[in-house]
């Protein structure tokens, strides 16, 4: 495994942060990279402290030993009697997801993709500047009082004010409908190849999206499917600790599992978000693996395209977030997108969150006339 490091910056050394908060920010990042291995994360934290003298900045002599004790006292880590190791708690899981959500929204505020206004996140109805004539059943809270009064004054006499039904104007609104989403995360070996850590940004986006849905869109559903040689469903609490394995890429089985999950859902919108950096390179055929890592195998590709068509028939859209720039891989994504009538983004890792959040909001929004 290879990691790409950047120069230490003061973003973890904010003057208004307590020593615990400064170290906890780093610890959460390292814990996610370590796949939930508390001991490994603390070892890396010690190494960073030795190299960058992080704890020397604390005036009260706060050290890493104090930090570890405080982690225990605050309920972020506990001792597992069966495994005889320290493990993260559910409180840590929630904290990492919340941190990921905050990071994504900070990116959006700086100028994310599309036209989503972060101040309106989670609202059922978003008012638009355009107005139209009132119709029976419209929500009276959306009446445009100024334009309604102007319309009434046009036919009102000096001695008697007259308001007619056709004077009333209401604002157009965007209505947020319910949505069922399956997020597919590629855990094949290429997600950490060539000195680039692609899995950590992918996990962060998945954690942030899950936190957004659980807190702002409680009626929506989100299922997570990881895939390598095979596809398997995971729980949201496991997201921070996903690890890349020595896997090929079974895109076919991932799409099949997602479609079967969504077939059981009764939602207005059904969608698949797939984060991947590689080509489909394996599938299960007659109970055996069929694999080919040397370029695009048309036998595998055609099966994947057939599955995309099945998703389209079930009114399930597929949005692919390709975090690779290889032209032949982009051609495959174009074929997949055409077969499903879905969408594709060729995203850099730093903009992945913006793309996914914008697309999620857009997919669950319809204009109310």
TrEMBL record:
According to the UniProt entry, which residue ranges have a biased composition of type Basic and acidic residues? 123-138
Tell me which residues make up the VWFA domain. 181-279
Q: Tell me the organism's taxonomic lineage.
A: Bacteria, Pseudomonadati, Balneolota, Balneolia, Balneolales
Q: What is this protein called?
A: VWFA domain-containing protein
For this protein, the record's InterPro entries field holds: VWF_A, vWFA_dom_sf
The organism sits in which domain of life?
Bacteria
The ranges of region (Disordered) come to 109-138
**Which Pfam families would you find in this protein's record?**
VWA_2 (PF13519)
Q: Which Gene3D superfamilies match?
A: von Willebrand factor, type A domain
**Organism for this UniProt entry:** Rhodohalobacter barkolensis
């Amino acid at each position: 495994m290879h990691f790409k490091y950047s120069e230490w910056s003061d973003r973890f050394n904010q003057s208004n942060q307590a020593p615990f908060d400064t170290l906890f920010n780093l610890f959460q990042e390292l814990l996610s990279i370590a796949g939930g291995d508390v001991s490994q994360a603390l070892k890396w934290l010690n190494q960073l402290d030795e190299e960058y003298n992080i704890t020397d900045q604390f005036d009260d002599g706060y050290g890493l030993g104090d930090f570890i004790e405080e982690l225990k006292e605050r309920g972020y880590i506990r001792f597992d009697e069966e495994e005889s190791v320290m493990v993260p708690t559910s409180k840590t899981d929630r904290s990492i997801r919340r941190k990921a959500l905050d990071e994504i929204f900070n990116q959006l505020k700086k100028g994310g993709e599309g036209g989503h206004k972060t101040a309106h996140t989670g609202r059922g109805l978003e008012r638009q500047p355009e107005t139209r004539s009132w119709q029976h059943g419209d929500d009276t809270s959306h009446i445009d009082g100024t334009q309604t009064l102007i319309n009434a004054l046009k036919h009102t006499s000096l001695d008697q004010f007259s308001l007619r039904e056709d004077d009333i104007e209401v604002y157009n609104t965007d209505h947020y409908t319910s949505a069922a989403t399956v997020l597919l995360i590629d855990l094949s070996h290429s997600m950490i190849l060539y000195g680039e850590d692609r899995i950590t940004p992918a996990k962060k986006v998945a954690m942030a999206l899950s936190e957004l849905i659980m807190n702002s869109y409680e009626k929506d559903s989100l299922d997570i499917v990881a895939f390598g040689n095979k596809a398997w469903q995971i729980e949201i609490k496991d997201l921070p600790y996903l690890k890349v394995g020595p896997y090929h890429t079974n895109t076919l089985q991932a799409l099949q599992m997602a479609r079967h999950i969504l077939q059981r859902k009764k939602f207005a919108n059904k969608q698949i978000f797939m984060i991947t950096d590689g080509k489909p390179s394996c599938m299960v055929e007659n109970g055996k693996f069929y694999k080919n890592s040397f370029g695009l195998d048309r036998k595998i590709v055609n099966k994947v395209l057939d599955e995309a068509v099945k998703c389209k028939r079930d009114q399930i859209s597929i949005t692919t977030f390709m975090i690779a720039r290889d032209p032949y891989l982009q051609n495959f994504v174009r074929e997949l997108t055409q077969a499903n009538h879905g969408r594709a983004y060729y995203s850099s890792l730093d903009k992945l969150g913006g793309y996914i959040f914008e697309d999620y909001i857009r997919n669950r929004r319809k204009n109310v006339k």
